[in-house]
Amino acid sequence: MFRLILKRLLLAIPTLLAVVTIIFLIVRVIPGDPATAVLGDNASEAAVEKLREQMGLDDPLWVQYLHYMAGLAQGDLGDALVTRQPAWDQISFVLPYTLELTVASVLIALLVGIPGGIITAVRRNTWVDYLIRVLSLAGLSAPAFYIGLLLMFFFSAKAGWFPAVGAGTFSEPGKNLHSLVLPAITLGLVETAYVTRMTRSVMLNVLADDYVRTARAKGLAQRVVLLRHALRPALVPIVALTGIFTISLIGSSVLTETVFARPGLGKLMVGATKQRDYNLLQAIMVIYALIIVVINILVDIIYTWIDPRVRE
Amino acid sequence: MSLADVAELTPEGHAQPVKLVSQRQRAWRTFKRNRSALVGMVLIVLIFAVAVLAPLLAPHDPITQSTINRLKGPSADHWLGQDAYGRDVLSRILYGTRVALQVGVISVLLGGFFGTLIGLVAGYFGGKLEAALMRLVDILLSFPDLITGLLVMAVLGAGMTKLIIAIALTITPRFARIAYGPTLGLREKEFVEAAKSIGQGNWVILSRHILPNIGGELVVLGSLWTASAIRLEASLSFIGLGVQPPTPTWGQMIQEGTTYLSNLPLLSLAPGIALLITVFAFNLVGDGLRDVLDPRSGT
Prior knowledge:
In chain A, 78% of the residues lie in helices and 0% in strands. Chain A is mainly α. Chain B contains eleven helices and no strands.
């Protein structure tokens, strides 16, 4: 297992390098001078020139690139333009909020989506199947921010059960979790839609297999056939695709964080974009790339755990 | 290429020789039997009609402000009320259809064209070009569409044309991936070899012999991604990085309405329903088309 993780990590390095390089180049293509962006349009030419020199903007691109990569290799993501503090300070503050939101919504999606998919597969072409399928297609169609607004309207504005905005702090776990409920359900519903649809189609394939018929012929109970014989092989693609959906979930978390005014990586990225803080933007993109690599490795680990054949 | 070959290559995998025309008819029959897809199709036609006829249908001008009448609830003259600038919400929703469809359709056409081209070229010619192109595609694919969209908008700045470019860029690698796989297999087929042997050029082979074989999948992808493109447009406009005011867009209307969610929920919820129906319709049709092309999946 350890060797597998190590191998995956090593394989991820070239991808990460390519991603970082592309992001570095994209950010350099952005029109507008970062030094002017920091000092504002009214700054004197001399001041801008001085800052340009300090920031190393006068160096040739490849020198800047080597500087940047050398910093990155030591874990230095560079300084944010607006705060002039290390970008990592802001990222490390919001990262736990994004992670708790992601984990909670993936859990919701798996707990609701897998049973939902199994039910629709078993009760194929009945009203339950149609209902859940229409609901999950609606879930795919609704942008996260709209689901969030609906939940906010019914459960905060009308019922007053949950806070509409904010995320509390980690020193007050009760408040923090209370604020997590609506955002987590928002994102969870989006992902539930994906998981349900996928589980249904995977289960339909598996249920048509010979060994499922054999299990039924032996007289095993429906529950045993479904959970022991059909679900286990079905879990392999489910895990793989859940990994992919989780990555796209990170995109939707931008919207959820905006709606509920929660601190988070997505909201930070929107802020950096609006303030034209390209260094912060670049640092956030690197963190996103890392998260994506970690999710992929996690998927591989769970894979080998479910399907022993992969281990070889 | 004989008719039997054509039949063998259909995505359905049926081996019996059938005429191309009857095959299309059969596909249409399957599609028609899929009631939900038909509902989606009817909805799309209606939505396009609304977009085209918006000036006739809208009871008021969508941009004219009337600050005395700001934040008024529904009335006989303004069915869905008036927003923070006193503009008629219903008229703005009807006009918003135009932006949604324009961005959705144009970005999918652009992204679909370039993506398919990249996939075909990489799959057909192979070699270093293939490795470089597909590596780039995979990297682009690893990022969530909204993050890519945000990054591109950060580079380009806000605006309708830039929004279309940003969304097209997120769509391009998706089409490249789908076009690439089958092309790899198809380039080894006898009919491609036959076409080469009679001296047909690469571009003729790509467009006449390979493209038609993956056309179905591309259409499905196009429909599903039109849905996603409209959702992306709304999301970016909601964040404030999309089409700029005063042009009415659903995402921006929803965002502006959030401030008044508890007193005047219609300001946000009504444009959201329009958005939901539109995205839902394209998804229904995409799903239906997929069932037609691959009867084993879905129902």
